[in-house]
Write a structure and sequence with these properties.
0% strand
């Protein structure tokens, strides 16, 4: 009995400790909005459709938090959702595991759909709670890409 209890405590301690694994949404989700500036220059080379999505996402993400940011983002959710369809239709970039790529693209699309639904309901109170996970899912996706040599 004591042996089982010790083992159970060890399993719980191992599960609770440490940082989230790099490349997971949980890892990226811990990024504070202010910390985004620090890693902005470290983006890898992206496939064209994903680069186009990022070109729209970045200025929206970097706007001051508030109603203007929500309005500007909600005005872009439909065309950006179509951009994500282009990302999903393309094959995984060279050197990236196709199954992992598609899973992360699917996660980003799911987060983007949630944001789109909040925008359609004019749910400004929930906006940041749905925009941040969509942004984090984008970063979880691009973590799969190799960083280009500078």
């Amino acid at each position: 009995m004591l042996h089982r209890l010790g083992f159970a405590l060890l399993v719980v301690a191992a599960g609770c400790g440490g940082k989230a694994k790099t490349g997971t949404v949980e890892h990226v989700d811990t990024m504070a909005h202010a910390d985004h500036e620090a890693h902005e220059g470290d983006h890898p080379t992206m496939p064209p459709a994903l680069h186009e999505f990022h070109e729209h996402l970045s200025p929206l993400w970097h706007m001051p938090i508030g109603p203007e940011r929500a309005t500007a983002t909600c005005n872009e959710v439909e065309p950006m959702g179509q951009m994500l369809e282009g990302v999903a239709a393309a094959t995984a970039p060279e050197g990236v595991d196709a199954a992992t790529w598609m899973a992360r693209v699917g996660e980003l699309q799911a987060r983007w759909v949630a944001l789109t639904e909040d925008c359609a309901q004019h749910d400004a109170e929930n906006f940041d709670a749905t925009f941040a996970p969509a942004h984090d899912a984008f970063h979880a996706l691009i973590e799969l890409l190799p960083v280009a040599d500078q």
